[in-house]
Amino acid sequence: MFINREEYLLQPADRCALEAALRIKDAARSQEMPDIEVVALPRTPLPDDDVLRQALCTGADRAVYLTGAGLQDADDAVMARVLAAAVGRLGGADLVLAGATTLDSGQGQLGLRLAEALGSPQIVGAWTVETADGCVQAVLKDGTGYVTVEADLPAVVTMLPGTLKLRYPDGVRLIDVYRAPDAVEHWDVSDLVDEEMLRSLLKERGRDFPPERERGVRVSGTSEEMAQALADALRQRVRA
Amino acid sequence: MDASYLDLLMAQEEGASEAEGAGIEGGGGGIWVVADVVGGVVAPVTMEALGAARTLADSLGAYVYGVLLGEEVTDLAPTLYQAGADDVRVADHRALARFALAPYLEVLFDLIEAEQPEVVIFGATSQGHELAARLAQRTGGGLVEHVVAATLDEATRTVQCAFPVYGGEFFQVVACPEARPQFFTIEPGAFSTPFLDPYRRGEPTMLDVEPVASPVRVVGPAEGFEPPSVPLSQAPVIVAAGRQAVDIDLVKQLAVALGGQVAGDRGARDAGWIGPEQIVDVRGVKVSPDVYVAVGIRGDTFHNAAIEGARYIVAIHPDPDAPIFQVADLCVEADPRDVLPAVVELLTDS
């Protein structure tokens, strides 16, 4: 199970979550364990299912596009309820992987809200993740070091951005996914939750902008003169 | 001058405040700050949160409550009082010695259920992040993370929070007008530290703690991960390379000469010069060093947003129109290979 994101691209942290899910699937296959199904779900309302097709191209087995009138302004609280219901409709998930943060707003509450909605333990900000013997193990940063932690499945793990590089899509699969009109399943959100549960808690009240930063000093002259000015400035600043 | 009416007035106010004081004991509303304790002291972000809470509470006519969780943390309660808390709740128990979600969550959830705060503030730390999101979902409250400014809509008693988008390109302002509590996590350094008033004091309320086992177990140190001596995000001097640096050895020599750490942008990562944990980018590591030297970095939006916290930025790039020059304090329009050897020599000689 993997929760991806968003309007126009797979978010960096979500790319890592998808890659982690695919590696777990690969590991299970190489050890001749029962096949694992990777399902991609959106973390925010999407204008179309293109991002989900990208997830299918890279190796996800199923992708579910959520539609519905009440979903346009859904915040993370609403999406957590909807996704928890979607996981229930899928028959449950052993492991839910999600990006730990989003590129735009930096908000990282969805995975944790979903863990609460599912009543699952959570591992937050993982660098790597693997499963074995009904447990999930993840590597986390702990102060200046790294530790391995584990939890029983089912669990929710959020992945940090930049930890894993998402594989390239398979060419044949890419053509198949984009040719098949029904490659992505479309679910109406009204079949998952009541209308009352689609009311967002957060309301936008506008935008504010930071003050313009003053432009810096330009150094000119020969290479030697520029080097001297640069060395002087650095010496002064670093010693200060 | 006959001041007897003043005595009468003061006696009435004392009576009123005692009645309200009884309200504190029994809880009911208020603005809460859940403290982060690092190395046996209250974290600076918690002090900043108390300052923000005090300002909001004074406008609302509400009380500020500090909440301390941990082992042997009772002695820290006076600090919270001095920073602006009207009352402090303390959960001091061996089971809370190290942060783990489950036991902390149970204590806080029971407390919130019993006392129904209006606003709950955490620091935007890993502890605050985990607790705030789970509590918000469990209690049905709204949550805004990484808040850098908070204003009050007094009519609806709603806090309007601003948080940075695209690393600070603009600030989104949101509010949670209908659901309570309003949770938010505040960004370290975004709010000012309050003056510690030594005359503010009180007797903290001790909470009973029922130990809860954490479902997440620590197995041990992770093998194969070599942490940097100082995390890049905390490094005081950073020398970062971009594609136009061309010679990464020169960048490393400059870093050694300055006693700094080597980093880079996405281009440096693609060139194989740095690891993924060294990428300076809003998608990688956001940095706030005293000195940031960008060698051959063109400076796209994501990179420039990630270095906004740097106090002094030096940019060396041959293209005079490179966007990095729009954020740099010292701009050197040159090929890094032409100036860096001399700079390294000058710095090493000194």
Structural class of chain B: alpha/beta
Largest interface: A-B, 72 and 86 residues
How many extended strands of chain A?
A: 11
Q: What is the number of independent domains of chain A?
A: 1
Counted up, domains of chain B total: 2
Task: Give a structural overview.
The longest helix of chain A is centred in the first third of the chain and has 19 residues, at 12-30. Chain A has one domain: Rossmann fold (3-Layer(aba) Sandwich). In chain A, a hairpin with a 2-residue loop joins strand 6 (135-142) and strand 7. Chain A has helices at 12-30, 50-58, 76-89, 110-118, 171-179, 223-239; strands spanning 2-4, 39-42, 62-67, 95-99, 122-132, 135-142, 145-152, 155-159, 185-188, 203-208, 217-219. Chain A is built from six helices and eleven strands. The termini of chain A are far apart. With 240 residues, chain A is α/β, with parallel strands linked by helices. In chain A, strands 7-6-5-8-4-1-2-3-9 form a nine-stranded mixed beta sheet, with helices on both faces. Chain A is 32% helix and 26% strand. Chain B has two domains: 28-206, HUPs (Rossmann fold, 3-Layer(aba) Sandwich); 232-349, TPP-binding domain (Rossmann fold). Helix content of chain B is 32%, strand content 25%. Chain B is of the alpha/beta class and 350 residues long. Chain B has helices spanning 4-26, 44-60, 77-83, 101-115, 126-139, 248-258, 266-270, 301-306, 336-349, and strands spanning 31-34, 37-38, 41-42, 64-70, 87-92, 119-123, 142-147, 149-153, 158-165, 170-175, 182-186, 205-206, 216-221, 237-241, 261-264, 291-295, 312-316, 330-332. In chain B, strand 9 (158-165) and strand 10 form a beta hairpin. The longest helix of chain B is centred in the N-terminal third of the chain and has 23 residues, at 4-26. Chain B is elongated and about 65 Å long. At the A-B interface, helix 3, helix 4, strand 5, strand 6 and strand 7 of A face helix 5, strand 7, strand 9, strand 10 and strand 13 of B.
